[in-house]
Design a protein that fits this description.
globular, QueC, zinc ion binding, single chain, 7 helices, 222 residues, alpha/beta, ligase activity, forming carbon-nitrogen bonds
Length: 222
Amino acid sequence: MRPRAIVLLSGGLDSTTCLAWAQARYECIAISFKYGQRSTTELDAAKALTQAAGVEHRVINIDLGNLGGSALTDHSIEVPDHEQAGIPITYVPARNTIFLSYALAAAEVFKAEAIVIGINAVDYSGYPDCRPEFIDAFANMARLATKVGVEGQALKFETPLLHLSKANIIRLGIEHGVDYSQTVSCYQADDQGRACGKCDSCRLRKQGFADAGVEDPTRYIP
């Protein structure tokens, strides 16, 4: 029997690559979050991707929009169309901590051995919860805070993209058969899932395809 993993899936480029990577190693359960984000077409992408892959998919509702504090959850804050110094306004406070906490609960409930998350410390937007130090600290907390951890069966936290450039992430995904035309990465995609082409996520994605020498299959707003 294959080991089981919980995979955090947004429907974007990185997390979809992670899902494909994980499927080669684990029986996967994907979880996504409707957290009050500006665009929810990424969730439509996640649903379609998991259906095509034959992977169980659960969507968890969290109202981070009620808190605001980020351009991704507060519509009164504009998504910037230029690179920002420091931690950008698109950072959602404690988002990965919250997501991983739910994944931790799911791993215990579904008896998973690993949690797979597509954080990246190379081509990323400067978010503090995408650093290896964060994952190490969360894994230490998980060993103390869970039944499996206390019983000596600590969960593995798999971060296959952590030290890869965006170009190498794309190459990895292509090796695993990922169809990137089905993914949505834009912070403010329209109702059809078309990307703005201007936000930080779009810029990193565009440059990744260019650097990988792969045609960009992203659908952009005219």
